[in-house]
Write a structure and sequence with these properties.
Layout lengths: L6 E6 L7 H11 L3 E6 L9 H8 L17 H8 L2 E7 L1 H9 L5 H8 L4 E5 L3 H5 L1 H12 L3 E2 L3 E4 L5 E5 L3 H13 L8 E6 L4 E2 L5 E2 L6 H12 L3 E6 L11 E4 L3 H12 L4 E4 L6 E3 L17 E3 L3 H8 L5 E8 L3 H12 L3 E6 L11 E8 L2 E9 H14 L4 H4 L3
Parallel strand pairs: 1-2, 1-3, 3-4, 4-5, 8-11, 8-13, 11-12, 13-16, 16-17
Antiparallel strand pairs: 6-7, 9-10, 14-15, 17-18, 18-19
Helix pairs in contact: 1-2, 3-5, 4-7, 9-13
The protein binds ligand PMT.
């Protein structure tokens, strides 16, 4: 599997649920999968190639006997290159063709030619799904190694009720993630990521915090999971949904984050401390609401530095990466923090710039390592997360500690 952009072939067949495949393409692209869409003739009655092309960024395949794109037998080439074939929605007709080994259009020919793992998400009338012929075809596909996700029960487009609804995008993505992760270079490895801000209580109504949205840390957790790792994500309060397949631990204060991180650190092969941990907490927080006053001051004390503590505990076989929020002179501060906190890498970002660091969808970083530094970005946080992990895997000293044995 290409860790940079695994290729998913998405076959959309002719069901009312075909429009839901557009959302699938968008979500797969967000998760940094390359998506090549194939529309059957039936699918084209419900959705247009143009919409899929716009979302996937690739020309949609529809015709087996296309003189241009098929000059080099493109469907065979695609069948070989695919990291996974996703059929969503899958009709009873296409399942029957695949089970029988028929090959009379682009989708069925590709399914016969490929040796890549297959994930099928059926959608059809409940009687068609329950019919012994379809059940037997589903069983045949499973026997040959395909995974089938859904269908769900509920109201169907035909006005009837029962099993036949295309399962949710979340379910399809979760199934796909676990299939692609099993082949990734980080499979069998434990990755611990921290994300988001911490909050320190002042009184019953107020707290001290910072601008971290959690996006960078969540992107790292998702990228590590996609590369096959078992990921634990310790996060402060954020408004983000958990990436499929990632184990999430919610915390609020720096002290809670420290406890959660220490619980998972020993078994972690790679720890990435992306959270913006509060440096200070109140000496004496109160449970009532403090009254407004002309003269108001807070008595603060330092929180323990979690990253520095991990730097002391770190074994030779573990990899430790910290982030650093800076407002200038990135290389100087990144190297100084790397040494002080005994991290393998410090990834520094400039949080004084409008489009990097806190909250936005983009980031730009300078990575300080043992031998010097390199820069990445500006780019989407999802892309940056993947590139950082790829660079870690390629690092001559750190990569061998992380790559699947
Ligand atoms: O969440 P987003 O909106 O996507 O924004 C991303 C980010 C800007 C928060 C992220 O890219 C980032 O820079 N995270 C680190 C923020 C930070 O706390 O930087 P720092 O320079 O104050 O700390 C350096 C390192 O020490 C960090 O790894 C931090 O987690 C760690 N630290 C700091 C204090 C403390 N008490 N314990 C720690 O472990």
């Amino acid at each position: 599997m290409d860790p940079k952009e695994p290729l998913i072939l998405l076959i959309v067949s002719g069901s009312v649920a075909a429009y839901k495949a557009l959302e699938l393409v968008r979500r797969l692209r967000e998760q940094a999968f390359g998506v090549q869409v194939i529309l059957t003739a039936g699918a084209q009655r419900f959705v247009t190639p143009l919409s899929f092309q716009a979302l996937s960024g690739r020309e949609v395949k529809t015709e087996l006997f296309d003189l241009g794109s098929e000059a080099k037998i493109g469907h065979i080439d695609l069948a070989r290159k695919a990291d996974l074939i996703l059929v969503a929605p899958a009709t009873a007709d296409l399942m029957a063709k695949a089970a029988l080994g028929l090959a009379d259009d682009y989708a069925s020919t590709l399914l016969l030619a490929t040796q890549s793992p297959q994930l099928w998400a059926p959608a059809m009338n409940h009687a068609m799904w329950s019919h012994p012929a379809t059940q037997q075809n589903a069983a045949t596909l499973k026997t040959r190694g395909a995974t089938i996700v859904g269908p769900d029960s509920g109201d169907l487009a035909c006005g009837e009720e029962g099993p036949g609804r295309l399962t949710s995008t979340e379910n399809i993505l979760a199934a796909l993630q676990s299939m692609t992760a099993a082949k990734g270079p980080l499979s069998g490895k434990q990755v611990l990521v921290t994300a988001g801000p911490t909050r320190e209580k002042i009184d019953a109504a107020r707290y001290i915090s910072n601008h971290s949205s959690g996006k960078m840390g969540f992107a790292l957790a998702q990228a590590a999971q996609a590369l096959g790792a078992q990921v634990t994500l310790v996060t402060g309060p954020v408004a983000l949904s958990t990436p499929p397949g990632v184990q999430r631990v919610d915390v609020v204060t720096a002290q809670e984050m420290m406890e959660a991180v220490l619980q998972h650190f020993e078994t972690s092969d790679l720890t990435i401390k992306c959270a913006a941990v509060g440096d200070y907490r109140l000496k004496n927080p109160v449970d009532t609401k403090l009254k407004k006053a002309e003269d108001f001051s807070l008595d603060l004390t330092l929180n323990e530095d979690i990253l520095a503590r991990l730097g002391q505990l770190k074994r030779e076989d573990q990899v430790l990466v910290g982030f650093a929020a800076e407002t200038g002179d990135l290389a100087h501060w990144a190297h100084s923090k790397r040494q002080r906190k005994a991290a393998d890498w410090i990834v520094a970002n400039d949080v004084s710039l409008a489009d990097t660091g806190f909250d936005g969808d983009q980031n730009q970083v300078l990575v300080a390592h043992e031998k010097g530094e390199f820069e990445l970005g500006p780019m989407a946080k999802s892309e940056l997360a993947r590139q950082l992990l790829t660079r870690l895997l390629e690092d001559p000293k750190l990569g061998p500690k992380l790559r699947q044995n």
